[in-house]
Amino acid sequence: MDNMSFDMKMKVKKTQLLIAARGLEVGGKTQKFIDSEVLLQSSPYVPFRKGVLEGSGTRHTNIGSGKVMYKTPYARRLYYNPQYNFQGAPMRGAYWFERMKADKLRTILDGAAKVAGGKGEVK
If we measure between CA atoms, which residue out of 31, 41, 42, 33 comes closest to residue 79? Predict the structure, then answer.
């Protein structure tokens, strides 16, 4: 048997370029999708009287930042106090983000995977 040797060179893009190619950087297309989808999927869970609290999520969230913010004088009180009786309960009420995640996380992750160029089936 002959001994063979060969040289192989492999070029790998820098991590930041790979992240940007998939839109995974802050402000990238994948993060924008996730932020928008969190607002959309959370909407039916947010306490609603006149829509100010729900609308504050859209007004105070910088889409693509990775931070969804509901900012009203009463947002914190409504989020952390499940004893309030909300119109549209039990769907609308306290801990709306956590309850939305329990129901819709798979939908958001699958969509984000598709936006990033994956198959869309996160396991």
Answer: 42
Q: What is the pLDDT of residues 1-51, one digit of tens each?
A: 567 777 777 776 788 888 888 888 899 999 999 999 999 999 999 999 999
CB 31 within 8 A of CB 37: no
Helices of type H across 61-95? 75-80
* Residue 89 backbone class (left: φ over 0; alpha: ψ -120 to 50; beta: rest): beta
Rounded to two decimals, the pTM is 0.82
- d(CA 39, CA 61) in angstroms, rounded, equals 9
Q: Return d(Cα 29, Cα 23) in angstroms, integer.
A: 5
- Give the tokens for residue 72: 């009203």
Q: Which residues of 99-118 are buried (b: 16+ CB within 10 A; e: fewer)?
A: bbbeebeeebbebbbebbee
Please give the structure tokens belonging to residue 47.
Answer: 């306490």
**Rounded CA separation 59/16 (Å):** 30
